Amino acid sequence: MGRTPTKDPANSFEDYFKRATSPMMTLLLLNEKPMYVYKLSQELERRSNSSYKMNFLYPVLYRLQQQGYVTEYSQEITESHRTRNYYAITEQGKEYLKFMLVKYKELLKAVDTIIDGNGNIETALPED
Q1: Cβ pair 86, 36 in contact under 8 A
Q2: Mind listing the pLDDT tens digit for each residue in 113-126?
Q3: Beta partners for 71?
């Protein structure tokens, strides 16, 4: 009988993938227009048909900000002076985004080549 993999939610393939691609996804959205965190999260979820949910965007944004790829500013959104923090991509961030997209596509092509070259891939786990 085949083994049933135990899933560690903190270390799943999907979680690693999201962690690795979240800076690129964030910069892609901010390249369109400045957004606040909740809007970023909603857009990621909407555009991915709920497949790409990110609960921890603040650490990604803070890291991008420290690296000079994102800037933050406050904007009043109500007459009672309520403010919202928006994030915008910088020129340096746009250059980094271009670099990441090229690298992502190169790696994706390489992985596809490896997978296509195998020919024996099955989605089910092999029997013991």
Answers
A1: yes
A2: 998 887 665 554 45
A3: 88
